[in-house]
Amino acid sequence: MMLLTCPNCGARNVSEFRYVGEAKSRPDPETATPEQWRRYLYFHRNPAGWIKETWYHGSGCRRYFGIERNTVDNAQRPAGVTS
Amino acid sequence: MSRNGQRTPRYSAWSLVRHGLGAGGEWGRAFRHHTPRQAYDVVIIGGGVHGLATAHYLAENHGITNIAVLEKSYIGSGGSGRNTAILRSNYLTPEGVRFYDRSVKLYEHLAADLNFNVMFSQRGHMTLAHNDSSLRTMHWRAEVNKLQGVDSSVIDPGEIKKLVPYMDVSASTRYPILGALYHPPGGIIRHDAVVWGYARSADAHGVHIHQKTEVVGIDVTSNRVTGVRTADGRRISAPVVVNCTAGWSTLISDMVGVDMPVQTFPLQAAVTEPVKPFLDTVVVSGTLHTYVSQTDRGELVFGASVDPFASYSTRGSLDFVEGLAGHVLELMPALSKMRLLRQWAGLCDMTPDYSPIMGLTPVEGFFVDVGWGTYGFKAGPVSGEAMAACIAHGKPPEIIAAFGLDRFEEGRLVGEKGAAAVGH
Amino acid sequence: MSDIAAAPIARTALSFPGPVRTTDGWETTARHAAGGLRLADLGPLVKLTVRGPADGSVRAALGTSFGHTVRPRGGPLAGALVVGSGPGEWLVLGAPGTGGELLAGVRSIIADSGEFASVVDVTHGRALVRLTGADTPLLLSKVCAVDLADRVVPDGAAFRSSVARVVTDVVRDDVDGTRSYLLHCERSSGQYLADSLVDAGIEYGIEVGAPTEHDDATGHPR
Ligand SMILES: Cc1cc2nc3c(=O)[nH]c(=O)nc-3n(C[C@H](O)[C@H](O)[C@H](O)COP(=O)(O)OP(=O)(O)OC[C@H]3O[C@@H](n4cnc5c(N)ncnc54)[C@H](O)[C@@H]3O)c2cc1C
Ligand SMILES: [Zn+2]
């Protein structure tokens, strides 16, 4: 079982978490065009390597947190400055 | 045994007997090894069913044979050699049903067309409904299918029990079976044979298949593709480059700066020890996130939905087998003593609407045939045929017109999640 | 209290075969567990959840933080067990029938703090059991992936994790030097959790019963 390290609870089975996805900034819904909004919804960088992403610890502290994960081997490190 | 310049020998019952008696010498290689040329008319990246079928139909239907298929590993090493080989056309949208139906039709005579036994077994495909809303979706799919001339109907638990006697259709289960979408033309195939058959045919037409040749860059001048660069330091010129790399497809598109709405998720499958034949149809349960079929060798092949997070890792997980075992036993309690032999994973290029991305891109000469997710093996023939036409005529044929890359920004999604998330 | 006791008004989340008894207005199993590994239904205990800033004056007044527990000796929560169940989240367990007092106690703490905080009585919405015996770590290791060694989860520590796939607050609260854990989860998952624990404990001779008169409100010996 893959372990994921929650900043609050420590290393836990990955099945305790929900994957939210790559951390990205949302365009302002007031001013975004439909095209911009769809780009935000549908497009992903999908890199093979380190990615900054958001997870939710549903079976533990029930907090969202940022982490950096290498998508090739699933190695992790704490998120640097998560915005 | 070199066959350079020779006709590819035909396989037949007679040649089998001859070789069996030791009279034919060694079987020849199904496709040859070549030194890469400096230039090709078409470079196809990815030696899976999509890349090889595209090469085959470019040669067969359009007479374009100066083609290279570049494969970083060996052919069929991606999803094409890892899938659970389910073929069907009982999708949800008219665009999808028409498209996959054409593929099933091509598969029906593929063995004869390729002179290669692909072992297509149309044993029927059954998608179970465990609640009212999925029963409603099954009726919806059955009606859409019928309108497109595809054989699909909703059957009741009594009929299910007749087709699959080992299934627990009693009302006392945790997820009682209320009915199923039954699709007689669906079935399973020998996936490796399809890959090898297309490779052999493409090779016979003069297509070069270069294994262990990884593309690391694509050259673009004035928004026009001019060629590719490989890991062993070669530059190969080509006015047309086709991205057929499924799980790796965003990495290739990144090389030309084309963004794609694709995320790569692992998908796992598992197989049991072989037992006597008892399961004639393919059985899928979306609610239980599982499906099962029995191969000609007697093994049960199990699959599920994709892993819960994006990754390029093909490592199996205990979580998957645990969940799978629980769900399978819910359907067929009699399997509790069966032993799993293997589990494995492949990479799936998931799109937001569970439909593929095919055709032209903003970069001239750069074509995509990706977004095959968990369901793309069945689409190999029709995609090869359509992509070949698209490349030859510079414009997507009608059958793939709905699957263009531009649909995402324009908001014209072709939602197939209801028909493709579990039953691939 | 005795008039209420005569006519039970509440049932805990758990039911077990065998006789039942009524105490403090609650119907629970009347079975008595005597063996070396025991599961006790503590459903009647008062359960309050408190939320507020993880590091403010509410925290200071409650006296503990995420991952730890405390039994206040005086003050408005005297006699209760305060569990730091999450970052900025607490669980207060108290004797049956003390809900009003404890609720008032926490409300005064919140009022005094001036912080944005809340308290909710979830007594009837949750299940609570106590698992006691030297073999509890072995039993729990079958259904929970967290390492229960002293180094990781010493006496008095708390965490939330998946126990038999149910999200559960686990509190280590040893009894006279014997390993003991409180397990707290949503009411609707309670019976399933208890059954899973009993199933996992069969090989260690688990017995199910009510707390004895020797136990205090939180099932801890007096
Ligand atoms: C477990 C599992 C079960 C599945 N079950 C089914 C099913 O039952 N039915 C169904 O229809 N579909 C199923 N699928 C999906 C199906 O396997 C895929 O959609 C299909 O095989 C995609 O084929 P492809 O030719 O596009 O890609 P692939 O077969 O993945 O081929 C892509 C190739 O590109 C190569 N490549 C990548 N990067 C480079 C590079 N830089 N240079 C050169 N080459 C490169 C790879 O090595 C790979 O061989 C399943 C998939 C999996 C993983
Ligand atoms: Zn956590």
Automatic annotation (TrEMBL), chain A:
GO terms for biological process: tetrahydrofolate metabolic process. One of its GO terms (molecular function) is sarcosine oxidase activity. It comes from the Bacteria. It holds the Pfam family SoxD. This is Sarcosine oxidase subunit delta. It comes from Pseudonocardia sulfidoxydans NBRC 16205.
Automatic annotation (TrEMBL), chain B:
GO terms for molecular function: oxidoreductase activity. One of its GO terms (cellular component) is cytoplasm. Keywords: Oxidoreductase. The keyword DNA-binding does not apply. The keyword Oxidoreductase applies. InterPro entries: FAD-dep_OxRdtase, FAD/NAD-bd_sf. Residues 41-389 form the FAD dependent oxidoreductase domain. This is Sarcosine oxidase subunit beta. The lineage of its organism: Bacteria, Bacillati, Actinomycetota, Actinomycetes, Pseudonocardiales.
TrEMBL record, chain C:
InterPro entries: SoxG, TrmE/GcvT-like. Transmembrane segments: none annotated. It comes from the Bacteria. It holds the Pfam family SoxG. This is Aminomethyltransferase folate-binding domain-containing protein. The lineage of its organism: Bacteria, Bacillati, Actinomycetota, Actinomycetes, Pseudonocardiales.
